[in-house]
Specification:
2 domains, 221 residues, elongated, 5 strands, 5-stranded parallel beta sheet, alpha/beta, Rossmann fold
């Protein structure tokens, strides 16, 4: 069995603070010998990974600045969490990732009662080492994923299919990714398309999909 992955799957694997991380990581590790992406998905992954990394860097640097000038002690985690979340509302990062990062920081240091200086010093170390986690997982991912080299604009070879999918509510870039999977399925029989995006499955539900060389559409959630 071969699996073609939507972009949210490799993102979920690499970004350990992503809401899809556990499911995406488990799936990719289980099927590490048979997971594919295309030129377009790989490029979208890299762009998304870079954007998320920049937003997280902004979040971490903002927290470090806040803690450097903070004189408040925290008796328990939720007090710390509420303080930081309220101070970082302007940072363009989804709250799920913010909360996961804060939880990991607190657990890594096993704070019971933490004074402001102790928290700041430990956060500086946490911030300095943070990117290593993502870069290591990105390297691992690139050693796992197999490239279906169909070119960045492969969907143009199946323009009628693209128009049909778009009319169903499967818009770009989703129809481009599905048609890359279709092209991959021509070469690899019994191909399964895997995504963490429920909206794709909702849009496809009830439609005749036999024109696609995709045996199954599967959710990793």
């Amino acid at each position: 069995m071969k699996y073609f992955l939507d972009t949210n799957m490799p993102i979920g694997y690499t970004i350990i603070h992503d809401k899809h991380h556990e499911n995406a990581s488990r799936f990719i590790e289980k099927h590490s010998n048979s997971v594919f992406w295309s030129n377009f998905v790989e490029e979208e992954y890299l762009n998304t990974f870079n954007d998320i990394s920049k937003s997280i860097r902004h979040f971490l640097d903002t927290i470090e600045s806040i803690l450097e000038n903070n004189e408040k002690n925290f008796d328990y985690y939720l007090e710390f969490e509420n303080f930081i979340i309220n101070k970082t509302k302007h940072v363009p990062l989804d709250e799920f990732k913010k909360l996961k990062i804060l939880e990991n920081f607190w657990k890594d240091n096993e704070f019971a009662h933490a004074n402001c200086e102790n928290i700041y010093n430990n956060f500086v170390k946490f911030n300095r080492n943070f990117n290593r986690i993502y870069f290591k997982r990105d390297k691992n991912l690139n050693g796992i994923m197999k490239l279906h080299d169909c070119g960045r604009d492969n969907y143009l070879n199946y323009l009628n299919f693209a128009l049909k999918l778009n009319s169903w509510g499967v818009h770009s870039p989703d129809y481009k990714i599905i048609l890359d999977a279709h092209d991959c399925g021509i070469k690899h029989e019994e191909l399964i398309f895997v995504s963490a995006d429920g909206k794709i499955f909702e849009a496809l539900n009830g439609h005749e999909l036999s024109f696609l060389k995709i045996m199954e559409f599967k959710s990793c959630n």
